[in-house]
Predict the structure.
Amino acid sequence: MRKIIPLLVLCSLFFSCSTLSKSQTESVHQFGEVTENFSAYPSAIMNELAEIRMKRGLFYASTLTDPMRQLNELDSIHSQRKYDYKVSESIDVTFRVIDKYAQSLILLSSEDYNDNLQSHAATMGLDIDSLITLYNTTDNSRSLPTGIGDALGNIIGYGGDRYIRGKQAEKIKDFVIKADTLIAVMTSNLLEYLESSNLQELISYEENMIRRNYLSYLQLTKASTFESQRDYLRLKQNIDAAKELRAQTIQATTDLKEAHNELVKVIQKKQKLYRTIQELQVFYLQVTNLRRTLKALNEEQN
Amino acid sequence: MKNKIKAMNTEKIKTLEKLLDTIEIVENARSIDGLTAEERVQLEKASVSLRNVERSIIRIKTNELVDTLTEDAKALDYLADEINLSAQKLAGVAKAIEKASNVVKAFVKIAAKAISAGLV
């Protein structure tokens, strides 16, 4: 016992050199939590465009006088919608890997490992004390001192805690640094996609076609109803939302890249964080805006 | 008009903007009063053809968009798997202490029984 205690203390000192401060680990955890559903935002733009395309297509289909042509047009609208959602799904799958990385960071930076360890070590200490008490009830010439189990439990808890924190810090540093280049590449790809002239052209085209199709509907069917007017206005709101989603996702993607980069810098420093990472806060605010926009869109569609 | 539309294909119409101009012309023509039945049918057919061209261009443009998203996701995916594995190993440390704690607990039970039975 006398040899084990200094050994455990030495081990704990060794591991304590490589640990991250609680605030540093919390920053990694926060980053994971803000990022874990990021893939939903790029694909939401394509989903929105798919819905607009279908609904403005219905205005157009109503203008066709030949039943067969109208039916074929409706079939084509349906087929296009299926295709649009397939594309959206492939975009979602590509960026779901960012979610997976974020969820892994949440798991790795969890406090649960230490909490579980402390609870088991305390139980073990109590059990050892019970054992000593039992031993002392037997007819022995020398009684053993009680309370040692509690001390041993504390040492195991402390040593284990330092060991886990050391390993946790080592792995967090290793993975976050490795991931930084990958996050940079993926966010650049996403920005290229979001800022491409193709996407801007698709959005702009839908905006024009909402108006064009409704005009054809009014001119050729002569059926301006309250419902159709309301549908037209909703489509205009939807295209505004798609534009806003695009702008917000561009900003959030830029913020994600910067927040991760700052996270790498922060965990490489051997010091406590006395402030929250500003880039992480900015990123969080942007993601909150995106969530709000998406929620409003979902509520409107339901 | 019909022949002109037939001649159009997705390669010739490079942008949706140009297509929009053509759609405008056809749709405005369709709404003119006094068209003959035949003219109306031909314009409607032309209009539908333009919508098919539109869908082809949209598909080309969305495919090009998806192509900009490269294979880099695979590397990050692999790293995320590695992180999960490390997290499992960390959980293993607490599990090992739990096992040791259970062994002591079982030993206490056995010792208590042995003492009460007068074996020790």
Summary: Confidence is low (pLDDT under 50) at residues 1-5, 10-17 of chain A. Chain A touches chain B through 78 residues (CB under 8 Å).
